[in-house]
Amino acid sequence: MAITSRGKRALAGLGILALLGVGAFAFSGRAPEPIRRxxxxxxxxxxxxxxxxxxxxxxxxxxxxxxxPMLAVKVENTDAAYPLAGLDRADLVxxxxxxxxxxxxxxxxxxxxxxxxxxVRSARTTDPKILGPFQDRPVLAYSGAARKVVKQLQxxxxxxxxxxxxxxxxxxxAARVSPHNLFTATGRLWAAARKAGARGTPxxxxxxxxxxxxxxxxxxxxxxxxxxxxxxxxxxxxxxxTRLLEGAPMTLExxxxxxxxxxxxxxxxxxxxxxxxxxxxxxxxVEMTGTGRAWVLRDGRAIRATWERAxxxxxxxxxxxxxxxxxxxxxxxxxxxxPTTGEVTLGR
Length: 348
What we know:
Layout: H1 5-21, H2 23-27, H3 33-43, E1 71-75, E2 92-97, E3 103-109, H4 126-131, E4 139-141, H5 147-155, E5 159-161, E6 170-172, E7 182-184, H6 186-195, E8 217-218, E9 221-227, E10 230-237, E11 240-245, E12 248-249, E13 259-260, E14 262-276, E15 282-287, E16 290-298, E17 301-309, E18 317-319, E19 333-339, E20 343-347
């Protein structure tokens, strides 16, 4: 059957409307590249580049935001575990205090991949408090936990990936001594997470802007003391904040330093939990709701701040002394959960 010129124009109009109907989807960054280009050709508008929800950075090569869940991995931080692997590929990292005053990392991955992450260590009650705002049923990879911790992970509806529940996602490094020899990779974890029912993508939690901070003072380094047994620092260089270990850049297994666009220092109240580890040390109970003091470091500057969070499912908001929300720079962020008994010293 032949189509008249009028019919062709009508069909073309319907096609345009269909494209416009998916415009919001296309501009969100989740649509495939051909759809976004088609909408741009019809509307003449330049769509916003897709941005990673955990960093606020454009995706690599302008590709759509990966349709996969966020992965959280517990990583050790002791001399026996060095050198560490994979932290340079994380989108966001939290540092938390554990028994004995040492710290561990919760490394969050979504847009970027890592072929090797670890050493992987055990979970703590702080972990579900960290992960709550980012995603419904977040994924946590860890090596083990006390019964109370496991119960809290289950109550928080966290998808747990361990060497026992997902053996194909982990491997032991024969060149290292146990328990500092368990490693994983994002590809393996995503495969295991899908089998466990993980779906969706993470929610942006922090406000991000390229505009510099107003009222921030120049800062070139910061010294952070978590406890008498744990101290670290960051120094500002041209490409961002570089983490220090004993005064020198902390390098990973691949020889690369740890670099962040933002360092957020959140001062938190810490009490003793009823959980006791094998050495007899009580597990710290970190309070992450309410309000407290903070520092936000970006662009070689620092601003004194406050933080507030009403519920563990809510994001933490950082504000200036005037009550204005503080935006982070696009890029990797490290959040240092420093006890009120700790110490923070800024240097110019």
